[in-house]
Amino acid sequence: MSGTEEYSIVRTENGFQVTGTSRKVVGEQTVNMILDQTLAPDLSLRRYTLKVTAPSGMQTVEAIRTAATVELKSGAKSGPKSKSFPFTPDMPVLDNLITAHFQVLLDQIRGIPPAEPMTFLVPQALASVPGKLALEGEETGTLDGKPVLLNKYSIELASVLELVWAEVKTNRLMRVEVPLQRVEMVREGFALAPKAAALATSAPPSFAEREVKFPSGPLSFPATLCIPAGAKGKLALVVLVHGSGPHDRDETIGPNKPFRDLARGLAAEGIATLRYDKRTHAFMAQINPSTLTLDEETIDDAVAALAFAGTLPEADPDRLFVLGHSQGATFAPAIAERAKARGAILMAPLERPVDQAIEEQIAFQGKKAGKTDKEIAEQVAGLKKTFARVRSGEAPDQEMVFLVNAHYWRSVMAHDPLGDLKRLKAPVLLLQGGKDVQVLKADYDLALKALAGKAPGMGEAHWYPELNHLFFPVEGDASGAEYGREANVPAEVVRTIGVWVKKQGGAP
Fold first, then answer.
1. 3-state class of 372 per DSSP?
2. Is residue 436 among the annotated active site residues?
3. Catalytic entry in 107, 248, 316, 436
4. Does domain 207-505 have CATH number 3.10.620.30?
């Protein structure tokens, strides 16, 4: 996405007037927005209008305040909608990617965020959303080449993290970043000072990497082989398999790269890894989404990666392991069985039906977004009915259900991950975070039960109470917004995997 925005905040006899124009280009589509907002002397909302013009049509969004309530109204092709909420003066408007709103918010707090959670109005979503605003600290940058001291703020709104930089001296907005959406909005002439590089040490790097490619069907997958620095002889090797979505080889999520953490950490443990760009990341233009199945998207390529790994001069073909995260963990037993891997490492596998997990996630995110119990119940009920139609075969293959078509979901539902785990003859390592809001303890308990039915020494499990779905430490409750904060997979997790691989792999 690229674009520009201009806005002004002008004092009037009765308060302030905020106006602005915005032009954003997403792919080949251009979206134009016109903002008109009236504020009281204390900067609280009186009236707000946003006119959005896009190739799909025009939409007008409004927020109209009365004495004790605010009515949000949206007029679009689907028909007008409105909702009312209780109003308080400290309730800011924070609509989607309107930088003027962040400046108004900065002027409201005057450098001192409230200690208690806030409620934000999001008119485009017809929502009143609880959130948390915090001062992260001071950083530096330049404006038109001159140094500026900055306050850095964070806003956690439902499952989204937004980062905001403002000049300390003037309180002027300089930069807004939404890490998980890869969005950055910067004042013209401003640059954030680069982070200081880590101090060089005399210790040599613990890993060496080289780019490789492997075949899977007609495609050639770009990948990275990571081995211990100075390694000699044949090594145990772990193939890393991503979660759902079009991931790159590092499983990049916001500023984080958990697969890179794992690969380099395991190299320090004396273990090689192969990580690769997922089919839906590397070859999106060559994929027919109407016929894509889970096997094509995940399992076939992982099996091909393991077969290729066995041909590498650095790898011991008798000591190949598969490590899956999330969706990759769910189907790691099937991958390990087909590839005849030495063992399988499962990081947060989903063991309950996928539609049940999605319904629970929708309910969780709806609650975080401030939806009422009735709204959440209606949305979940609708999703249940749709997934029931998918399971029964009533839904046509190309009917879109939760971002993908029914054909793809039926290919997922045709698998039996828990049964695959029970039947797998190779040893299994199970890892789960206690603050995971996507894969729950119920899944961990099912996997534990499956491991309990295996022969002694064939199953090992570790529970990490303070880690989330990405196996990052979380302070307080997890929401998914923390995925936007820089973090790393803890050494404890890497070491656990390394010890287990060595135990299962035997002597080189």
1. coil
2. yes
3. 436
4. no
Tell the burial category of 330 from Cβ atoms under 10 Å away from its Cβ (0-12, 13-18, 19+).
buried
CA-based nearest residue to 82, from 90, 93, 74: 74
The tokens describing 129, both together, are 């959303």
468 vs 477: CA distance, rounded Å? 10
Query: 434 in helix, strand or coil?
Result: coil
Nearest 5°: phi and psi at 103?
A: -65, -40
DSSP-derived 3-state class of residue 192: strand
For the chain, report the end-to-end CA distance as a whole number of angstroms: 49
Whole-structure pTM value:
0.92
Is 469 known to be catalytic?
yes
- The catalytic residue among 22, 216, 244, 326 is 326
Q: In 390-408, which positions are buried (b, 16+ CB within 10 angstroms) versus exposed (e)?
A: beeeebeeeeebeeebbbb
Q: Please report, in tens digits, the pLDDT of each residue of the chain (508 residues total).
A: 688 999 999 999 999 999 999 998 877 889 999 999 999 999 999 999 999 998 888 889 999 998 899 999 998 666 688 999 999 888 999 987 899 999 999 999 988 998 888 999 999 888 999 999 999 999 999 999 999 999 999 999 988 999 999 999 999 999 999 999 889 999 999 999 998 665 555 567 899 999 999 999 999 999 999 999 999 899 999 999 999 999 999 999 999 999 999 999 999 999 999 999 999 999 988 998 889 999 999 999 999 999 999 999 999 999 999 999 999 999 999 999 999 999 999 999 999 999 999 999 999 999 888 888 999 999 999 999 999 999 999 999 999 998 899 999 999 999 999 999 999 999 999 999 999 999 999 999 999 999 999 999 999 999 999 999 999 999 999 999 999 999 999 999 999 999 999 999 765 5
Establish whether 107 is a catalytic residue: no
What residues does each domain of the chain span?
2-192, 207-505
Residue type, 484: G
Q: The dihedral of CA 244, 249, 250, 254: what is its sign?
A: negative
**Side-chain half-sphere CA neighbours of 256 within 13 A:** 20
